[in-house]
Write a structure and sequence with these properties.
Length: 522
């Protein structure tokens, strides 16, 4: 068999090591993304059968049963096995899954997990519920892609025995969605959150305002949405989230252990607000709505007190609906704000954000201001700005536009997307290390990795998914897996195995020629 494998490898066929419809033959041959920190194999196979159930260990917090239900909802539609969540203290038997908290296993940290698979039981433990949730994504990915189907599939549902111990390199792993240039509604946003969850991401940054549209209801300034929410790039009808819808999105994300970071971009990128309220303009006249794609032409009046009343109301209302620590103040491309005015503005807005119990994050330009100690600077363009932030004690979130901008075209033939920063093929998206990309930005300065999706060129969620996939799994792995464990040549084979999974999930992904989509799996 070994010899046959070697021959098949030589001619470029990897399939002898696993069957794409039944999963890996040996646990170490898994195709999990992000790549787990440690995997060892053992003899035997675990099989889900009609007798299988999901057991919650006695004494677990209630949250663990909720996570058990989430797992049952992932497994039951495709297996048809009717797995139940058992919380009455009974012990698991053959073919059952056990979920348990083990606070003593501190090596796993806040989001890590251990999965022990035997021929009898599959036991998932974690220090915190968040770790159990991440571990469930590993269980999903150890099962064949058909597990993602909404209709009953034949199986078999088999996982080879062994142990996985796994935890993330970075505490912040996320994507941003621009709902301002084109609006994407709550159902699209929830689907995006589900994609983040599958790849163990934990932050979703919502870009809620820009020149072309204001997308969140602010009760004290209703025209922001009544007027400013009705436009988008190209002249479409726009849209916005009511506060109830936003809260529902926050809850949906929370149930997936994903934190929402809301962004109100200012003092530039504010035409939608300036067109909604004449009093925000220094000449007292409302701006015309804008549906083009230029940047850098708008600015709040940073020396007018009503601007700070406006910012205070907006931050107060959104902060009250947002459980996460961070509020994103934008701050990018304020080309029509004088630098002194910009610094004055960012300094005052930091105080406002803090007064509502949140910490500030913003695009790298905010480092021109005097930063408070808990600020995170989102590096997207200028290393000098990130360095300025670090010199003030700020942490850096890595979103380098040449690698992590999901709205960049894959190559010159990509119809959607932009190309001002780079063409970003799947290998360019994967092949970089946050801790060495910019020599002055060191590992200890970095909180994590975030890939933004700007929406000038996309107006449907199918189009968004085409740009997101298959780059998202790579960003997830950069954030989770230590750099020394990552290699493009090995990753591209694992990614190929995700083609069928993405297809089953109904994702119309970019079929990069760098990936052997037709010969998936290790
Ligand atoms: C940006 O791309 N203007 C942050």
């Amino acid at each position: 068999m070994k010899k046959l494998c070697l021959v098949m490898l030589t001619i470029g066929l990897f399939s002898c090591q696993s069957n794409p419809t039944t999963g890996p033959a040996d646990l170490t041959r898994n195709t999990i993304i992000p790549k787990p920190v440690s995997v060892t194999s053992a003899d035997g196979t675990f099989i889900l059968t009609s007798r299988s159930d999901i057991f919650v260990a006695e004494g677990s917090p209630e949250e663990v049963a909720v996570i058990g239900n989430y797992l049952a909802e992932r497994l039951n539609p495709s297996t048809g096995l009717g797995l139940r969540v058992i919380t009455d203290g009974r012990k698991p038997g053959k073919g059952d899954i056990l979920l348990a908290i083990n606070e003593g296993d501190t090596e796993l940290g806040e989001e890590g997990y251990e999965l022990v698979i035997t021929g009898k039981v599959m036991t998932l433990t974690a220090v915190r519920p968040a770790g159990l949730f991440r571990g469930i994504q590993t269980i999903r990915q150890l099962l064949p892609p058909a597990i993602e189907s909404a209709t009953i599939q034949p199986g078999p549902w088999v996982i080879p025995a062994g142990t996985i111990r796994d935890w993330p390199e970075y505490g912040h792993r996320g994507e941003m969605l621009d709902v301002a240039r084109h609006f994407f509604g709550p159902e699209d946003v929830k689907r995006f959150i589900d994609h983040l969850a599958l790849y163990k991401m934990n932050v979703f940054h919502l870009h809620l305002s820009d020149d072309q549209g204001w997308r969140i209801e602010i009760k004290s300034w209703p025209n922001l949405t009544a007027h400013g929410g009705k436009t988008e790039v190209g002249g479409g009808e726009g849209g916005f989230f009511t506060q109830e819808e936003y809260s529902d999105i926050v809850k949906y994300a929370e149930e997936r252990y994903i934190t929402i970071i809301p962004e109100i971009d200012m003092p530039g990128h504010t035409n939608a607000a300036l067109s909604s309220y004449p009093e925000l303009n220094s000449d007292g006249k409302a701006k015309e709505p804008y549906t083009g794609t230029k940047v850098g032409f708008s600015s709040l009046d940073t020396r007018s007190e009503i601007t700070y009343k406006f910012v205070d109301d907006v931050v107060r209302e959104i902060a009250a609906l947002t459980p996460g620590q961070y509020f994103h103040i934008g701050g990018d491309e304020s080309h029509s704000t004088k630098i002194d005015d910009y610094i004055y503005f960012v300094n005052r807005v930091q105080d406002i954000v803090e007064s509502h119990g949140k910490s500030v994050t913003g695009w790298d330009e905010i480092a021109h201001a005097t930063l408070k100690p808990d600020v995170v600077v989102q590096y997207w363009a200028r290393p000098a700005n990130a360095v300025k932030g670090i010199a003030q004690g700020a942490k850096v979130l890595m979103s380098p536009c040449q690698h992590a901008y999901t709205d960049m075209k894959y190559d010159s033939t990509t119809v959607l997307g932009l190309s001002w920063a780079a063409y970003i093929e799947v290998d360019d998206a994967y092949n970089w290390d946050p801790a060495t990309l910019v020599p002055e930005i060191k590992r200890e300065n970095i909180v994590g990795v975030q890939a933004p999706l700007w929406a000038e060129t996309i107006s449907t969620f199918d189009e968004a998914e085409y740009l997101i996939f298959p780059r998202l799994p790579g960003y997830a792995e950069i954030g989770w897996t230590p750099a020394e464990m990552r290699s493009w040549d090995e990753y591209r084979v694992r990614l190929a195995a995700h083609g069928k999974r993405m297809e089953t999930l109904g994702i119309g992904f970019y079929r990069s020629p760098l990936i052997d989509w037709d010969q998936p799996g290790l």
